[in-house]
């Protein structure tokens, strides 16, 4: 983080490698609809496009890749994608619902530094939320089966909090501890900023401010009791005291460059109008660092400082890390080195 901050260029590449998904989460803003899903694979970046992007990212000083979706393991070339990241020298964080892990793990092991498993509840309640009967038992068997694997990556569990799983942290925390995994939680996102303003989706499922305070308080209790909550105490206090984030200033786009499935460089303040496209940069042999000189890119950085749409710890704590806040610097070092 310190190196990226001194260069004033992003340190993380967040790649939404596909928006196709085998899950049916009611809270999701990212999955293609059933009608959009048809033919969607043909609109995604090719294996060669991705290899070029990862090489460019490494040349631009980016060292961390966050690979997510949709469900990234649905890509038939996922092994090649991960090998491209490894060849470029990127350290990969893979986020997945885990359904395909038991089948694919023999070819993926050793290519992932950190594995993030989505776990919104336990047992059949998790299966219902994800629309995948048998998912929890499948995850449980996989995690316990690789416990002694010398190439097992650092394991994290992420729980999306909504009105569909109130109190889930109390149920998920013992599972994360049994798995030997760190535990994150994210209040569900309610919409996306577009050129015409905030477009709200599934807002009726989001926790109220009082419920967010209660969730933060529960997380603090569980952390104090020895469960592996990874959010910093500073974040938990912020969510408990100021769930509207009136005292927060976002720096996420300073630290993270986000690429969507079709190759668009995302403008987090105008998600319907991308900053550019990987294919165009590759075709014209233009380095992606040219993006940083664009007026709209600089405008995005300025405008983001006043945005409080995202309340997730990864957004807030990465922003604090970019500002070199001591509360997150040591944790960031341990995560990237783990």
Task: Summarize it.
The chain is built from 15 helices and eleven strands. The chain has 338 residues and is α/β, with parallel strands linked by helices. Strand 5, helix 8 and strand 6 form a beta-alpha-beta unit.
Question: Can you characterise this structure?
Answer:
The chain has about 350 residues and is an alpha/beta fold. The chain has one domain (about 1-335): Aldolase class I (TIM Barrel). The chain is about 40% helix and about 15% strand. It is built from 15 helices and eleven strands. It has a seven-stranded parallel beta sheet. Strands 7-8 form a two-stranded antiparallel ribbon. The chain has a two-stranded antiparallel sheet with strand order 10-11. Helix 3 (about 45-60) packs parallel to helix 4. The longest helix has 16 residues, at about 210-225.
